[in-house]
Amino acid sequence: MLEGAGLECAGYKQQQSAAASEDGVCKLEGQTLALVIYPSREVQQQVRSAVTAFDSGYLIEGGDAWTVAVIGGSQALADQVHDALGGEISQF
């Protein structure tokens, strides 16, 4: 998904997740991105609450139940991801 949008994410590593159909982490411009594709918007919203309680950064969320988190990263990188993928951006 990220590469298809022109985002050159280095070292993508798939993670095991019971709540997601895809869950992976990589580095873009030295900052950590987490891509998660959920089975439904309901699951996406439940997990969002847990994630935002323990970390800080930016979320870019799409209507197809996907989320890209820029963990501890910059607004500029969040904007770059948003421009490439669309969705809604919020700070957490």
Strand order of the largest sheet: 1-2-3-5-4-6
List the secondary-structure elements in sequence, H or E.
EEEHEEHE
Structural class: alpha+beta
Give the strand content: 35-45%
How would a crystallographer describe the biggest sheet?
6 strands, antiparallel
Q: What count of helical segments does DSSP give?
A: 2
Calculate Rg over CA atoms: 12 Å
Shape: globular
The share of residues in helices is 25-40%
User: How confident overall, as mean pLDDT?
Assistant: 92
Number of DSSP strand runs: 6
Tell me what the structure shows:
The chain has 92 residues and is α+β, with helices and mostly antiparallel strands. It has helices spanning 41-54, 75-85; strands at 10-14, 22-28, 31-37, 57-62, 66-71, 88-91. It has a six-stranded antiparallel β-sheet with strand order 1-2-3-5-4-6, covered by helices on one side. β4 (57-62) and β5 form a beta hairpin. The chain starts with 9 loop residues before the first strand and ends with a strand.
